[in-house]
Amino acid sequence: MTAYSAVALTTAAIVALVVSAMFVPGVAKVFLLAQAAYWSLSYVARPLVLLWTLPQPQFADSLADPRLANIGYDIGIAEVLKPVVFGLWFYVALVVGYVLFRRWRRGPQERTTIGAAVADPYFFRSLGTIYVLGLGGRFVSFATGNTGSAGEVSSSNPLLDFAATMATVGALGLIVFARPEKLWQTAVLLLGLMGMELVWTVIVESKTPVLGAALAVAVRFALIGWTRGTIIGVLGISAGAIGAFGILQSLKVDPEARAISAAAEASYPPVVQPFLPILRRFDLLEAATDAYYMQGREWISHGDVVKNAFLNFIPSQLLGSEKFQSGTAWADQVRGSSVDMRNVSVSLAEGNISEGFVFGGYAGVAVTMTFTFVMVLVAVRWLLARNFLFVVLGLTLIEYPVLFERGILGTTESIGKSLQLAILVWIVTLLVGEYSRQCAETPPPTTHVPDDISTLDRSSSKGSASWV
Fold it and tell me: Is Transmembrane helix set as a keyword in this record (predicted)?
């Protein structure tokens, strides 16, 4: 199989995924289409750019992989994409099977209306409260220089990072569920929240916040119904956010680093250069290359996978020890087997296909892709749940890219963190609800009335009584 035939098979699988997703109702369709877009950038656009330009690896250019360049991009990409082709076609088979199962069952249709949690009168007050608290956490993080950056192994200040995440949940919740009465109010709400997430994505040097907000907009319209205008609007917002990301990111870089980056980009054709900042962020092809260079060597045992996936749901404070960090371990042990990572400390996205291939070859890919599809269905159920706790978990699955670029270990890691956040948000919701009820039940101030009303009446009739 040549590199171009591998890319063609990958493209065909993604097209088949898009077609299959059209027969899936509601929010699940949005997730599947988002996966198709995400994986096309990682497994189609990036390989095509490499095959077209054949770039030589150089400093400040993370797009040109030295390992692929050494063995030849044609040979390297053809080999690296083999498990990717299998994984994507297996995923398409899962989606088609789900569609056929729904048609055969002909049972109750999937509920696409919001759950009782959203009908709670204090739901939006709670979202607003946690959003304001989260903005405060973001401001303190930025003011104290603790914002961190993409790929950071551990947060500079976990408490501030935890507080800042509350803003994400509040923003996504308002984007998905808020229903202003007037169109201009909706436009202001969506553009304002999207703008804040774009600013934050530049500050933390990560694509996650703005892409999460764009996905939340798509989920919103999946719940209320699509029109031609909303489709164009979502596509425009997504394209604008992705395009603005590279521009705003360059403003943050100092002149020396900008000059080095410009020199690296100058080796690419001018038509490709505007897309380089975003293509560098979709790096699952590098993870697939990591898995290929493992050459069947064991990373961790199957028992350790199960154990660590379970422990990810238990807070570190209760365990009394540090939990297994899959992104850091992947960087040290998997990528470290083919790239010198001794002086680099970073957390990487391992990818569901790559993780499965390292765990157990093509059988492992089948397991991890099945897990990913199940998580898509779980995310839909959580977003439409009747309990506020599960709604928050669903919102965090919109924010964290676990449905796109993480495997079993990375997904359970994120859900474990989300569970702690959901409990905190639930407590805030209880406090907001109780405060609102206390304010509603407080009687208005009244003038003192004498105990003997009959005396007051008699004296008032004579016009001689006065009282305060």
Answer: yes
> Span 428-438, mean pLDDT?
78
Tokens of 110: 């999937």
For the chain, how big is the Rg over CA atoms in Å?
27
Instruction: Using a pLDDT cut of 70, give the percent of the chain over it.
Output: 80
Asked whether 36 and 14 are in contact (CB, 8 A), the reply is yes
Handedness of CA 315, 132, 176, 161 (dihedral sign): negative
Sign of CA dihedral 435, 436, 437, 441: positive
Helix, strand, or coil here: 123?
helix
What SS3 class is residue 158? helix
Amino acid at 161: D
Average the pLDDT over 284-302 and give the result. 89
Q: Which of 70-84, 278-292, 441-455 has the lowest mean pLDDT?
A: 441-455
- What CA–CA distances, in Å, run from 192 to 186, 189, 196, 325, 355? 10, 5, 6, 35, 37
Closest CA to 330 of 153, 204, 161, 87: 153
Domain ranges of the chain: 297-372+404-441
Using the 8-state DSSP alphabet, how is residue 386 labeled?
S
pLDDT score at 451: 44
The residue that leads in pLDDT, 209 or 154, is: 209
How many helices (H) and strands (E) the chain has is answered by 22, 0
pLDDT in tens, 211-245: 888 889 888 888 887 677 667 766 776 666 666 65
Residues 197/171, Cβ–Cβ less than 8 Å: yes
